[in-house]
């Protein structure tokens, strides 16, 4: 039986994707504000988080939400507030006040943890890609007692068929614990089961990483790729679309090595990591430890993120151990 959470998550992510596409088509440069962490955030991020929050609230009135965004910038800017309010109201069936929309966004301030049920939303993951016209994803995860049990990624600019840039674009990835991973193309109701690549030699493997070298060291990944005899150039795309392409077998390895001291956010990995696991892959940190979503809003117990098709996992982990000169790396 299809769970209510799954149905609602798909509805929420699709509506949020609609608003993102609309914002991209009408975005003017001046509407990007810089948050304290200096990542760009657009009216799209706020509107998408509001839409997901309102949709969850409609079906699950007591829901809890760990979300990337909050309403601080909206409280400080009337024009931003009005733009976001208009966008939300143009997308949803009912009309909401500015106050209601800011409250919906601020449902996302939940601290997370190891008990109970809560949702995790990154309304636009890959904001840099979004602004560039590249890849981005609306990412919604559901957590039960510290473990991700449902993940939905909405990828409006991702080719539906392999990486065919000339074919149709826009797809969802859906993963449910124990039930597998699926792709549903925008405009379709058909969920197609997906599986990681069965490639078993690193020399023919494809790896992916962040487009932005400030998010993940391209130098370190190149060294690892060289040690593994990977000859194909890296696939550099923004956002959790990387998890999607691992899950459906377009690449075998995803490497992410942030700068020293950077702690990853749960919303950047919740949905995507479950989808890869449900597609038969393995996701862990650079020490081979599983990502621990039970410690609050960030992955404080982890460093780096690695996803593989499983078959090549131990070879990749051994290369990481060697390049970073680590003493202890867990193998699968
Ligand atoms: N210095 C840094 N190192 C690693 N990740 C970073 C970073 N600065 C920002 N990020 C995170 O990287 C995410 C994008 O990942 P990717 O590089 O795979 O596209 C951003 O998500 P948002 O775009 O939602 O802010 C942000 O949370
Ligand atoms: Mg951000
Ligand atoms: Mg993100
Ligand atoms: Mg984001």
From TrEMBL:
The keyword DNA repair does not apply. GO terms for biological process: hyperosmotic salinity response; methionine biosynthetic process; phosphatidylinositol phosphate biosynthetic process; sulfate assimilation; tRNA decay. It comes from the Eukaryota. SUPFAM superfamilies: Carbohydrate phosphatase. Its cofactor is Mg(2+). Belongs to the inositol monophosphatase superfamily. Keywords: Hydrolase, Magnesium, Metal-binding. This is 3'(2'),5'-bisphosphate nucleotidase. Mg(2+) binds at residues 68, 122, 124-125, 268. NCBIfam families: bisphos_HAL2. GO terms for molecular function: 3'(2'),5'-bisphosphate nucleotidase activity; inositol-1,3,4-trisphosphate 1-phosphatase activity; inositol-1,4-bisphosphate 1-phosphatase activity; metal ion binding. It is an enzyme of class 3 (hydrolase). Its EC number is 3.1.3.7. InterPro entries: DPNP (IPR006239), Inositol_monoP_metal-BS (IPR020583), Inositol_monoP_superfamily (IPR051090), Inositol_monophosphatase-like (IPR000760), Inositol_monophosphatase_CS (IPR020550). It catalyses: adenosine 3',5'-bisphosphate + H2O = AMP + phosphate; 3'-phosphoadenylyl sulfate + H2O = adenosine 5'-phosphosulfate + phosphate; adenosine 2',5'-bisphosphate + H2O = AMP + phosphate.
